[in-house]
Specification:
The complex is a heterodimer. By secondary structure, chain A is an alpha/beta fold. Chain A has 4 helices and 5 strands, in the order ββαβαβαβα. Chain A has one domain: Transcription Regulator spoIIAA (2-Layer Sandwich), CATH 3.30.750. The longest helix of chain A is centred in the first third of the chain and has 17 residues. The longest helix of chain B has 22 residues. The chains are: A alpha/beta, B alpha+beta.
Chain lengths: 117, 133
């Protein structure tokens, strides 16, 4: 199931709705990269609130989304990592190094607005 | 919910199925939501390993009791190429599949007990257990 991508001014919001397959995640990375160019977006928010597991592949792909968007000129904020998911990621030894995170969508948007040039 | 659940692993959607079944089983046996997430994440890692190395295999989820606490036992089995050196495969950051090398050592940290039996050319069986705290 592809992830819907909404546009809020110059920010793209990808709201992950359900457990994603690896293919869906890779598709999201490619879609976002393309849409950053098409909509001249400055920011990307990946909302993972609905995800109940972020394993090593998902974490690596989310990091890939952020790095790809950055090379395309947009900043990414990952929002909504649930407490249990965060704990499991730490236990697993996973980090989102170099990727901005925020509590929820509002905080993510605030972060992008605050740091906008 | 039956006491044993078998999930064949043939493609990536089966990874999602396996971890959902694991979460359900854990929930039905009194595991906290945090523990359910740890179990589901560990299942995800070992299921991913099956796909990456053996292409197909199966995950068997069962319940048991250990020191009078309910436990979940996860067995991930494949008849893939096997692991040459299990000690090396358990090392952080070691991967032969272009992955992060987090799978086995990571899953081990998420569970209480963890065991890998592998024979080159025959396959790999990972058995892991977590009990209600």
């Amino acid at each position: 199931m592809p992830v819907p991508i909404l546009r809020l001014d110059d920010v793209l919001v990808a709201s992950i709705q359900a457990a994603l397959t690896d293919q869906d995640l890779l598709q999201l990375r490619d879609d976002l990269s393309e849409k950053v160019g098409r909509f001249r977006a400055r920011g990307v928010i990946v909302d993972v609130t609905a995800l109940d597991v972020l394993d090593s592949f998902a974490t690596r792909t989310v990091r890939g989304i952020a790095y790809t968007a950055r090379l395309r000129g947009a900043r990414t904020v990952v929002v909504g990592i649930q407490p249990d998911v965060a704990f499991a990621m730490v236990q697993l030894g996973l980090t989102l190094e170099g990727v901005a995170t925020a509590l929820d969508l509002d905080e993510g948007l605030a972060l992008l607005r605050r740091d906008a040039p | 919910m039956p006491a044993e659940v078998l999930v064949p692993i043939r493609d990536e959607t089966d990874i999602v199925t396996a971890r959902q079944r694991g979460r359900e089983l854990a929930a039905a046996h009194g595991f906290s939501k945090t523990e359910q997430t740890l179990i589901a994440t560990a299942i995800s890692e070992v299921a991913r390993n099956i796909l990456a190395y053996a292409r197909r295999g199966e995950i068997v989820l069962a319940t048991s009791e250990h020191q009078s606490r309910p436990c979940i036992v996860v067995v991930a089995r494949d008849e893939g190429p096997g692991i040459q050196d299990v000690d090396v495969a358990m090392r952080e950051g070691y991967s032969t599949s272009n992955g992060l090398g987090m799978g086995l050592p990571g899953a081990k940290r998420l569970m209480d007990a963890f065991d890998v039996v592998s024979a080159v050319g025959k396959g790999t069986t990972v058995t892991m257990r977590k009990c209600v705290r």
